[in-house]
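Hey team,

Filing this mostly as a record. A colleague (T.K.) asked me to run one chain through the structure pipeline before their review meeting, and I want the input and output archived in the tracker in case anyone asks later how it was produced. No errors, nothing strange. Just documentation.

Input sequence:
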Amino acid sequence: MTCGLTTSIRKGFGPAALILGPGLTAAAAGPADRITEFDVAEDHTRFVFDEAPVHDDGMPAHGTAFVTQGYIYPAGTLDDGPGVTEDGAPTHPDKVLGTWTCSGWFVGEGAHTEAGAWLVSRQVYHFEDSDAVIVSQGPEYNVVGEAKPRPITGATGAYGDDAVIEQTFLGFHAHGGVKVRFDIPSM
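Output structure:
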């Protein structure tokens, strides 16, 4: 999930003109500069969790901290594949829009959670072409296909005025990492 140094702005605070990229500010950014729906494929080689607490089978239990990273793709990219190779490289390097980092803690029954929240996490979405960043924080659910809102706690560039991002768990890919779709609803 993620750790990273980012410049973020909370809605209603900070400078009026945030820099998106060369010569482009949030004030100048229009709808074409925003990606409002995208997929994330976790790089399973980057998923790391604490040694304890764990269940008897070694899987994370309630309270286990973790960090992971992955690739941001256009929405629909993961409909027909994992998005990452067995060694953790992107399967579609020409489609990678940025990086996703997520960190947090397992809750409920940890990796054994069958219903309800199984993680509380902070996610950082860094879009490479525009250098825009979104940060969201909240619970995650392991129910496939059900969109759940996450508050946007900070953002730069074209995303500075957004308040919510919806997360839909698409399941696990062949290498054990998560596949997730995100949507930023119109305000």
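Quick notes for T.K.: The two ends are 26 Å apart (CA to CA). Residues 40-183 form a domain with the AOC barrel-like fold (CATH 2.40.480).
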